[in-house]
Design a protein that fits this description.
The complex is a heterodimer. Chain A is mainly beta. Chain A has no helices and 11 strands. Chain B is globular, with a radius of gyration of 14 Å. Classes of the chains: A mainly beta, B mainly beta. At the A-B interface, strand 5 and strand 10 of A face strand 4, strand 5 and strand 10 of B.
Chain lengths: 115, 113
């Protein structure tokens, strides 16, 4: 059972470089999301999608772009990386978004360092 | 804005000890979730509590939702090294016609053999 798969596991970028964090899920979930996790800050929602072709901003969207062309994939793009984007990034999917018994399935994370 | 405060932030105990971690808010939540996150991995859902006063048990872990649905606690009996990890609470609250998930900052538990 693959669940939610994130790649790469680790990445080092220089300021100004661009990259895409990949996320794929095989559970046929309509809802997918991206979080960043920083020490002392908890998990913060970056962007989310309720289905193919539909995306929306979370609480910390600046500096990140997303698109959702298929149900399975939800890539996160950094167009011009900044040191403030150094963080651990998690992709998550849900079968019951916005419901009282919502259950999020998380990937194993991407640790990103921007120098 | 709905906020969840977790305490303590860090907890280091010896194997066999009991412990309780807390998740508090001034807001009412429709449900409260607890996740455990191990180093290098993503959070994994442990339990969801929905009804005020609800108590759920998962082996040595006991979860309770406050009567007013503003707070929750996680009690671990006879902690083991395998319980080591970051424990996150998350509240499901109303935002317009939808529900929104809000995470606390977590309690980092270390159980020493």
């Amino acid at each position: 059972n693959a669940g939610v798969t994130q790649t790469p596991k680790f990445q080092v970028l220089k300021t100004g470089q661009s990259m895409t964090l990949q996320c794929a899920q095989d559970m046929n979930h309509e809802y997918m999301s991206w979080y960043r996790q920083d020490p002392g800050m908890g998990l913060r929602l970056i962007h989310y999608s309720v289905g193919a072709g539909i995306t929306d901003q979370g609480e910390v969207p600046n500096g990140y772009n997303v698109s959702r062309s298929t149900t399975e994939d939800f890539p996160l793009r950094l167009l011009s990386a900044a040191p403030s984007q150094t963080s651990v990034y998690f992709c998550a999917s849900s079968s019951r978004p916005g419901q009282v018994r919502e259950k999020l399935f998380f990937g194993s994370g991407t640790q990103l360092s921007v120098l | 804005t709905q906020l969840l405060e977790q305490s303590p932030q860090f907890l280091s105990i010896q194997e066999g000890e009991n412990l309780t971690v807390y998740c508090n808010s001034s807001s009412v939540f429709s449900s409260l979730q607890w996740y455990r996150q191990e180093p290098g991995e993503g959070p994994v859902l442990l339990v969801t509590v929905v009804t005020g006063g609800e108590v759920k048990k998962l082996k040595r872990l006991t979860f309770q939702f406050g009567d007013a649905r503003k707070d929750s606690s996680l009690h671990i009996t006879a902690a083991q090294p395998g319980d080591t990890g970051l424990y996150l609470c998350a509240g499901v609250g109303r935002r317009g016609s939808n529900y929104k998930l809000t995470f606390g900052k977590g309690t980092l538990l270390t159980v020493n053999p």
